[in-house]
Amino acid sequence: MLLGRLLLRTSAVNKMVSRNAYTASKPDPSKPNMLRVGLAFGSTAVLWALLFKQHSTDVHEYKTRNGLE
């Protein structure tokens, strides 16, 4: 019984202390967050560059192993 009361108290305290992760207002699409947009496009560009670099090294290794170069 004591454990049940303790759990009820801690859950009540957690509800008071924690914040809601959701907001009531929706983001305005006419004013995008340019930092987030820049990070998204920048990280995509970096990943594509790494992909092309890895592909080039893989093709070079394939050619040298098979005597095509």
Characteristics:
69 residues, mainly alpha
Q: What proportion of the residues form beta strands (DSSP E)? A: under 5%
Separation, N- and C-terminal Cα atoms: 78 Å
How many individual β-strands?
Answer: 0
The biggest sheet amounts to: none
Q: What is the H-and-E element order?
A: HH
Give the integer mean of the pLDDT values. Answer: 84
Q: What is the helix tally? A: 2
Q: What do you see in this structure?
A:
The chain has two helices and no strands. It is mainly alpha-helical. 70% of the residues lie in helices and 0% in strands. The mean pLDDT is 84. It starts with a helix and ends with a helix. The longest helix has 32 residues, at 34-65.
Short recap of the structure:
The chain is mainly α. It is about 70% helix and about 0% strand.
